[in-house]
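Continuing the series of single-chain predictions for the mutant panel. This is the parent chain; the variants come on the following pages.
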Amino acid sequence: MFFDPAIAAQQALHRAEEQGELGPFHKEIVEAEEIFSCDESSEATQAFERLHHFGEQLPHARAFQEFLIYLTWQQVMAQPLPHHLQKGWDLCNRFLKRFGPQLEGSQALQQVLAMRESFRKGIGIHVESQETLISEEYDQEAFSSGD
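Parent structure:
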């Protein structure tokens, strides 16, 4: 990876705050992120799950969704469990489907694509799988005509 996901997470969360994406959950999200970042106990795992719960309620909060991708990678590094890898893969694909065309050529898009590749390798999806082929088709469309 050509960037540090922990730093990218902080930057994405900061953008989400600046852009007002966190809405009524702002205080709770910041508190959960602080717990996640400073602790490695079951409290950190609970904070991780709370942050993802907020993400489900804020599906159009682009910077916050990007934050969740990086956060999930941090969780994979702490607890390399298959369901965390799958969650990261799913988050990346949803993010790319929803926001990819708007982010063409951006650093955020390049970083999410790199994260998706890391999650893909972690869960062992091979290029021949249908889901990967669909994602690759997205990549080709997003960077060409967009249709």
